[in-house]
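ok posting inputs for the 2-acetamido-2-deoxy-beta-D-glucopyranose job
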Amino acid sequence: MALELNVLALSLLFLFASNAKAQSDNGVFDVMKFGAKADGKTDISQALMAAWRKACAVASPSKVEIPEGEYMLSQVTLSGPCKASVEVQVRGTLKAPADPSKFNNGPTWVTFQRIDHFTLSGAGTFDGQGGKAAWTQNDCKQVGRCNKLPINLRFNAVTNGLVRDITSVDSKQTHINLLSCKNITFANITVNAPAQSPNTDGIHIGRSSGINITDSRISTGDDCVSLGEGSQKITVTRVTCGPGHGISVGSLGRYREDPVFGITVANCTLINTSNGVRVKTWPASLEGIASDMHFEDIVMVNVSNPVLIDQEYCPGNKCTKAPSRVKISNVSFKNIRGTSATRVAVELTCSNGIPCENVEIGDINLSYIGTEGPATSRCSNVKPIITGKQTPLACGLTL
Ligand SMILES: *[C@@H]1O[C@H](CO)[C@@H](O)[C@H](O)[C@H]1NC(C)=O
Ligand SMILES: *[C@@H]1O[C@H](CO)[C@@H](O)[C@H](O)[C@H]1NC(C)=O
Ligand SMILES: *[C@@H]1O[C@H](CO)[C@@H](O)[C@H](O)[C@H]1NC(C)=O
Ligand SMILES: *[C@@H]1O[C@H](CO)[C@@H](O)[C@H](O)[C@H]1NC(C)=O
Ligand SMILES: *[C@@H]1O[C@H](CO)[C@@H](O)[C@H](O)[C@H]1NC(C)=O
Ligand SMILES: *[C@@H]1O[C@H](CO)[C@@H](O)[C@H](O)[C@H]1NC(C)=O
Ligand SMILES: *[C@@H]1O[C@H](CO)[C@@H](O)[C@H](O)[C@H]1NC(C)=O
Ligand SMILES: *[C@@H]1O[C@H](CO)[C@@H](O)[C@H](O)[C@H]1NC(C)=O
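and the output
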């Protein structure tokens, strides 16, 4: 009897050992070996967590793989710190629960946090399954901020990272949110949501530095890229945006905030967006700083408000009428060309409490596609430095 038990125990041990070995092939952890099923119905969150924990504990570079196929994934958090660099490669389509009430632990679907040297790759898709059921519950306007509907992907305190090739569709709210991140490149990513989906920003960055977004396509119902407080050393290049609300710095000044500086937006194309490149701050704001922001080599196609500084930003129209106290300085808009869907193609509305300083406008060629006359500009509380050719004449002809 004792012998039999020993034999049983031994063979069980072997089984476990070979199982553990089979789960990893040279540091590659395939979720299928952790019980994931590509049937589009079975929740793979436990399998993904188990594969992640194993990969994260390996002392050499490792990888978690989600192969082609359709998977159901409920709310999940992949946390570090890890022993070495980890890559998560998504080749399949991950679907979030469509019902917003299925998200209990804070408003996020997938969170990556406290990971150094992290890569998210693969031609796979994160489908947030937003839609009427979620978007009609959006209360951001009434509440004044968004705090309920889940964000597709959150990166919290992720450093030295690369996010490439993935697609995020139909998030219930913002698609990708960065907080306290450093040195991450986003390359060749796709964001897709309908023009009418509320607050579905493409990528929102807050309190992060050294972030590059490049060679990507963003179509959504809010800002394609929004750079919030504490965005520093951010480069956005070769991004195509539209539909959407454009590429924005802000909105700033609502809370006690870290300064924004070192922003470059270049070689981007905006199509059918409700704004082009803009800086927005709330009126009656707290003190703040936004400086060293450069927008250049940008093509506008049928864009409303192509070039915009708006220091009276107040979407709900329920703001106290007092000047913004966010100081905007060292800004340039250069080589911006194409078509404007509104007659005022260049608008610089700076704070009447703290005027904008050192704003350069160079080589603008924007034509109004409507019939009410040529494109114009409108400026207040700013004396821009004008260089190169100007159509419309910046801060010249006013309406
Ligand atoms: C930034 O992150 C990338 C990707 O992990 C890494 O290769 C690079 O060394 C990092 N740069 C710095 C300055 O740490
Ligand atoms: C960009 O991502 C797509 C998948 O979304 C992939 O098919 C393509 O090869 C990637 N392009 C590059 C240059 O890596
Ligand atoms: C981002 O781009 C800037 C300018 O091209 C470069 O200096 C910086 O190293 C890049 N950062 C990353 C994370 O690749
Ligand atoms: C934009 O593209 C031009 C032409 O390819 C290039 O010279 C310039 O360096 C690019 N700007 C940035 C900031 O990458
Ligand atoms: C801009 O939007 C209009 C109206 O929805 C559409 O017909 C047109 O194709 C869009 N333009 C581009 C370049 O996508
Ligand atoms: C321009 O954009 C407006 C919406 O802002 C749209 O109604 C119109 O069809 C677009 N025109 C073209 C030529 O794409
Ligand atoms: C703006 O640029 C000037 C000249 O380069 C510099 O002295 C000043 O410190 C900059 N302002 C801010 C707030 O960075
Ligand atoms: C401005 O754009 C129009 C239309 O694309 C073009 O015909 C014109 O030559 C441009 N002007 C300058 C000064 O580049």
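notes: The pocket of 2-acetamido-2-deoxy-beta-D-glucopyranose (ligand 5) is lined by residues 271-272, 301-302 (CB under 6 Å). The first helix runs from residue 2 to 23.
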